Amino acid sequence: MSTLISAALLGTARTAITFEELPTAVRSSTRELDGDPAELLLAAAALEKAYRRGGAGAITATVPTLAPGDVRFTLPESSSAHLLSMLAAKATLLDEWFAVALSRNYRAPDHLVAELLSFARASETHRESILQLVGERGRWLAAQNPEWSKLVRTRDANPDVWRHGSSAQRTQWLMDTRRTDPTLALAELRKSWGTERGEQKAAFVSALAIGLSTDDQALLEEALDDRRKDVRRAAADVLGRLPESEFGERMAARVQEWVRVERKLLRSTMVVLPPEELDGPARRDGIEDRPNPHTDYRAEYVRQVISATPLSLWNNMIGGAKKTLGMSVDEGWEPILHDAWSNAAAAQNNVEWALELFNTRGVATDRRLLPLVPAKALADLLRAGNGDANVLHPGRAAIYDALRGPWPEDITRAVVAQWERVAARRADGGAKAGEFSRYKYVASLRLAETRFPYSAVTLLNRAAERARDPDWRQTFARTASAITHRKTLLEELT
Amino acid sequence: MTSPWTAGQVASVAPDAASLAAARKLAGSWSHAGYKGLALWGLCQGSGSKPYQAVVDLRGPAYKCSCPSRKFPCKHALGLLVEWSEGRVPSAAEPADFAAEWLLRREEKAEGTGEGGDEAPKKAPDPATAQKRADRVASGLAELDLWITDQIRSGLAAMDTSWAGFDAIAARMVDAQAPGIAGTLRALAGTVASTENWPEKVLDELARLHLLVTAHQKLSELPEDLVHSVKAHVGYPVSTDSVMESTPVHENWMVLGSGITEEKRLFTRTVWMRGRTSRRWAMLLDFSHGAPNFSTEAPPVGFLVDADLHFYPGAAALRARLGATHSEPQPFTTLPSGSIDAALQEFTDALAADPWLRSWPAMISSVVPSFVDGAWFLVDESGAALRAEGDSDLLWKLLGISGGYPVAVCGTWNAQALTPISVFTGGQVIVL
């Protein structure tokens, strides 16, 4: 349309129009046209447009490779709809739902894959679960979309990324490869260790915590002598998670030097005698001065050494977690020892010690240990407090949090009963009624939606009938309905 | 009574997933809920003192709620559907007072023919009025042609391409009762602002309008079908009665897609259908102001409807109204084949009959969607391809559905690209 458009741009008052360059068929038709130049041009333009549109033909293009097959079952239709609405609402049930859906070998239906990838991109919370659910089709689709391709970084073991990638890519490669092939990752890190830039080394050392084994000792020992403090610190931290290491043995030797068991006729006592000053090897192992206004500076040495010492040492020295924790200690040392053992139990993932520390310390237990404590022990502690006025005391929130569902009947009943007492106080009104608002109990109510057993629905509906406060009545009914809904959702997957 | 909807059906009417989740949270807030026949109602206690009044008419379906939400349906209407689907809404002898009036009005409306947006009044057209209108349009179009030729004479480079410039002439066309042309002119202002090669687009559109004006001047010399096409493009109204009086086309119509669009609070529902044996295309349109509460029920996508269609007259007739239906809709699980060449030929035939057409439906039975260097294509077995365009979410969804395997795609072709509407795979139609 070049000749017509240039004439139209200039205006027929200023330029003559020519049909010479039009397609032959159009040019021959223009002979039948009449009118002034402007009308002629418009008519010819209409003709040419119709000619080109009507004659539009196919072009050629390449097709993508085929998406690999996925033998898993497609999610039922209603489950798919529920999944989208749960994702939009960031529902608490999602963790449980994904666990069930993936264990039952479901995959997302193809028509939802694109939408689910958008969710995975927008939020990190359920990214891994979504990516598993969309499976091969999702990887295939995401690889073609520049906005999604990062979601499915190819996790191949090819060390080229490690050798030539950016620092973020290299850290990612190291972490990914530690999960699948820790030996290869270690070998690659060893090869380049001497020439690595200082600021990246600490991150690389920390990555060794994934797939950690005694094979990693040599490099970690080398890192303990690094020029940079952050590298030395990272190495000591990682070595502290490896009880069967020489580092652990050195720590154990220190403890044996500093802590003595004085056996007397009736009872034995633990006597703690830290040195006045740290020697060179201790400083090399990461023990440092950490001023603390509440304790003696030497107490901090003890805290650090015991935190990094294999817990098995105490079995040999005293005999088991229970016995060790039960032993009497020099005055003032107990809180420091408990804290150090908690650190060690968390770093070494030691279930026996976690349980014994929990039995000793109760609600004051370090939160990092609660996931290691068996559900029965957690429940027993909550039961032991049922005589209390408030089973939902804020101090216990962490224990409820750690108690996996479905909760035992008696605990469920106790929690509902407590809510009902609160609701009654709220209905009575008075100056402090605000304390009994349902909003003060959001955390426990939200937890109940995913942790209560299905049988709680009856309890909650009865509570709704009895409640005199309209807000609480609504809350009870809503919680009951959320639990019913959860039951439906999970049953759909069976 | 009708059996309660499944959770999936409720989810399908939700405007977005978040609304559905919000609706679920309303459990426990309901009172005075009930249902009778195809009507549902209930009071929902919100944060205010006065509860919201939600009513649902399952035909359509249509919704009404006293809340100020702009979502449609709002979470209260959805919540009511959830309550009902989970069996918590009791049957009632009579609708509650707050619901009765609205339901009654809808009942009356449904008994009429269901009037919508651009329909003409039902009373018989008065020949004198019609002539007056024709004269008015003719004089308006003469003025338009003067404006068009002026632009070409003085050159598009010197044209006033501001929004106000186009709006002035568009407003004149509204006065001249040529709303179709006014719409084209207003859209042109946007094209100029957003397109780089706007002179080409403007010349195309001016040439198209000039052709329309010329055709309108020679209306008496044109074949009858083309007269209807010209009038439709100018924007003459067509009375529903005259359409329903036309000879119906009885066919097994495959419902291939449906969608709702909104412009300035006017909601338009489009349903695409194709004759199983005749391969004839049909498009049902329904309009609703303010909210997508359509008075008629849309035939279900993926079903075969044995029915009479009354087409709006025209040289390339597409828009139709649903007449008598002869049996219950049946799902279909196969599609007749359709090639790229056949779709292009259909478009060419339609364009030859009505040169003002912008697009025409197309169904291609075996193509692989493909995304290459930022452009979308539909490619057949021989490697022949058509460009595809549209909302990017929908195109990615289409690609996800295909997985590199051939699927059947239904859409509209405008000589440059195909805009997908639905996809058929595994014996099922999925609306994009």
What does this structure look like?
The complex is a heterodimer of chains A (494) and B (432). With 494 residues, chain A is mainly alpha-helical. Chain A folds into 5 domains: 2-54, no CATH class; 89-152, no CATH class; 160-239, no CATH class; 259-372, no CATH class; 375-492, no CATH class. In chain A, 59% of the residues lie in helices and 4% in strands. Chain A is built from 26 helices and 6 strands. Chain A has helices spanning 2-10, 24-30, 37-54, 77-89, 94-103, 113-122, 127-144, 160-164, 167-180, 182-193, 198-207, 217-224, 229-239, 246-258, 280-284, 297-307, 312-317, 321-326, 334-347, 351-361, 375-384, 397-402, 409-428, 442-451, 456-466, 470-492; strands at 59-60, 73-74, 106-107, 259-263, 268-272, 328-329. In chain A, the strands form 2 sheets. A 3-stranded mixed beta sheet of chain A has the order 4-5-6. Chain A has a two-stranded parallel ribbon with strand order 2-3. In chain A, strand 4 (259-263) and strand 5 form a beta hairpin. The model of chain A has no long low-confidence stretch (mean pLDDT 88). With 432 residues, chain B is an alpha+beta fold. Chain B folds into 4 domains: 7-111, no CATH class; 127-234; 246-331, Beta Barrel (OB fold (Dihydrolipoamide Acetyltransferase, E2P)); 340-431, OB fold (Dihydrolipoamide Acetyltransferase, E2P). Chain B has 12 helices and 16 strands. Chain B has helices at residues 7-13, 17-24, 75-85, 97-111, 127-154, 163-175, 179-194, 198-217, 224-234, 240-245, 340-353, 392-402, and strands spanning 30-36, 39-44, 52-57, 62-65, 249-263, 266-275, 281-289, 303-311, 319-325, 330-331, 360-372, 375-379, 384-388, 407-413, 418-425, 428-431. In chain B, the strands form 3 sheets. In chain B, strands 13-12-11-14-15-16 form a 6-stranded antiparallel beta sheet. A 5-stranded mixed β-barrel of chain B has the order 5-6-7-9-8. Chain B has a 4-stranded antiparallel beta sheet with strand order 1-2-3-4, with helices on both faces. In chain B, helix 2 (17-24) packs across helix 3 and helix 5 runs antiparallel to helix 6. Chain B is globular, with a radius of gyration of 24 Å. Chains A and B meet through helix 1, helix 3, strand 1, helix 4 and helix 6 of A and helix 1, helix 2, helix 5, helix 8 and helix 11 of B. Strand 1 of chain A pairs antiparallel with strand 13 (384-388) of chain B.
